[in-house]
Amino acid sequence: MESSYLAASRSGLLDRQINKSLRLLEKCSLCPRRCNVDRLAGKIGLCRTGACAEVASYGPHFGEEAVLVGSHGSGTIFFCGCSLLCAFCQNYDISHPEEHSCLPVDDRQLAQVMVELQEQGCHNINLVTPSHVIPQILEALPSAIERGLTVPLVYNSSGYDDVASLHLLDGIVDIYMPDFKFWSTDSANRYAKASDYPATARMALREMQRQVGDLQINARGCAERGLLVRHLLMPGGFAETDAILHFLAKKISVNCYVNIMDQYRPCGRADEFAELGAGITAEEYWQAVQRAEKYGLTRIDRPDYSHLLRHLLDT
Ligand code: SF4
User: Fold this and answer.
1) Quick check: 310 pLDDT over 90?
2) Multiple choice CATH, 4-314, 3.40.50.12160, 3.40.50.360, 3.40.50.150, 3.20.20.70
3) Whole-angstrom Cα distance, residue 26 to residue 315?
4) How far is the CA of 227 from the centre of ligand 1 (A)?
5) Which of 100, 107, 219, 247 has the smallest count of CB within 10 Å of its CB?
């Protein structure tokens, strides 16, 4: 299956979306925070990112879902900064700007990173925390295409995505991989100061599903197009998990591919919240999986460590 952005490039859609998206940076309203700062003039808002995208690290990743990892890894690019900023973030040092050390990249440098990952055999370009750098990603694509990029683009976000910004990616992104973190406005406000997160994520996921549909996996077991939703189980958060799984089954699709993640551990500022000190038990994980199945969701991602083991044995 040809990656969407190649057709978008031929039709002129990509150029149009680049121009539209860059204009949004003048008075930034790319994400629901709507800081209204002129990022092209170097001003920064809550995501602490100006005109250039900043990259913390990149490389083949073997710890992602098996449908992304394949035999040679998912080509992850970790962007610095974030528009959600959860207190318990597991990548706290790169998402929270005071503590990061990042490399600003222009469009040609970002294109080079994408092509390098493809040359290393990665099955996709996995854009981690991309919501605040959509224009910069789009701007890098013509140069990446010129240098031979063909693998699918994965938009790996927190789910805190403005629908208008997602429209800029329609016909360009192949795989959406949002989190759905909080169902309750109280939790979203308490841990991310974003009480609009649940409503925003619901709208964003519907738009993503409209654009790309259910996840399509090729004969080699690699995802090519579609929606893959991640949900991180939180200590004491079963009621929210339940509501999120119900939403996915009823409002997105019973064929929605879901990764229920049990790897929560207290990170970042989690110690400021007594209830976030615990981890997730195996019983809590299985309870969530059973609840998903009860709602009719059958495409639940199961951890598959064979790719990682093969990679470790080969290196
Ligand atoms: S992308 Fe950054 S500057 Fe723009 S609205 Fe969101 S947080 Fe603010």
Assistant:
1) no
2) 3.20.20.70
3) 46
4) 24
5) 219
